[in-house]
Write a structure and sequence with these properties.
Blueprint: H1 2-35, E1 48-58, E2 69-71, H2 72-84, E3 90-100, H3 102-113, E4 119-127, H4 131-136, E5 140-143, E6 148-151, H5 164-184, H6 189-196, E7 208-211, H7 213-217, E8 223-224, H8 227-245
Parallel strand pairs: 1-2, 1-3, 3-4, 4-5, 5-8
Antiparallel strand pairs: 6-7
Helix pairs in contact: 2-3
């Protein structure tokens, strides 16, 4: 009888083991498909949250499926959760964006700038258009040597009514963005306007392209650096924040 019970127990446990193995295999397969690796590295202690904004920032209008997008309705709840989480001490914002929806990008930037937890941004590849307010919304900002930032006035695609009211609307929108940038960066309003309305650099548009060190020289970004420098700075800010609480 004892032998029979033991055999029954082994048989009962076997499906659970099989399910566990199948679950691990399925998880590994999903990681390979989505991320190109069987395992996703997890930072320990996981006190820094890394948030990436890539491609085009999608706002109220859904972009074509072939566009690489960051949906703002996905980002805002994450920021709220990060702010409330007791396990997260700081935010690392990584940017490689061509810009996108002005309202959506500015909403994300406003939310990041009002967080109580330390934050550091790192521009890799590009931080263009509405990506500029996003890059300066953190407590400290870095840009890679080869990364670029395109500074230009806002535009609108589609039918636009040509009249004084339209001009005033665009002017107010641009003022909102310019004020945010000058409040969170070391650039003056006069210098920012020079970059915005420069007519000698872009062939089919007005504006300026800044590469790496140029963004720092003009006061938009604090420092040239990469991932190591960004993480070191964020850890420094977290340590200082905890020191204030003692």
């Amino acid at each position: 009888m004892e032998m029979q019970n033991t055999n029954n127990e082994n048989q009962n446990n076997q499906p659970d083991k099989d399910r566990g193995i199948k679950g691990q295999t399925a998880g590994a397969a999903a990681n390979i498909k989505e991320l190109g690796t069987p395992e996703v590295p997890v930072a320990k202690p996981n006190n820094i949250h890394c948030l990436t904004i890539i491609g085009q920032i999608e706002g109220h209008m859904v972009l074509p499926p072939q566009n690489k997008t960051t949906k703002y309705e996905h980002v805002l709840p994450q920021l709220a959760a990060i702010e409330q989480s007791e396990d997260i001490d700081g935010l690392l914002l990584i940017l490689n964006t061509v810009g996108g929806d002005v309202e959506a990008g500015l909403a994300i930037a406003e939310m990041i700038s009002t967080m109580s937890k330390p934050s550091v941004s790192l521009v890799l590849g590009g931080g263009h258009s509405i990506g500029v307010p996003l890059s300066v919304s953190t407590d400290y900002s870095f840009i890679a040597k080869t990364a670029t930032m395109t500074i230009h006035p806002i535009r609108m695609s589609g039918l636009v009514v040509g009249g004084p009211q339209t001009y005033e609307y665009f002017n107010k929108m641009q003022e909102r963005i310019s004020n945010f940038i000058t409040e969170h960066a070391d650039i003056t309003k006069e210098r920012l306007n020079e970059l915005l309305y420069n007519t000698g650099e872009l062939a089919n548009d007005v504006g300026t392209v800044l590469i790496g060190e140029e963004a720092v020289t003009n006061g938009l970004i604090k420092e040239v650096g990469g991932l190591r420098e960004a993480l070191d700075k964020l850890k420094e800010l977290i340590k200082a924040k905890k020191g204030e609480g003692n």
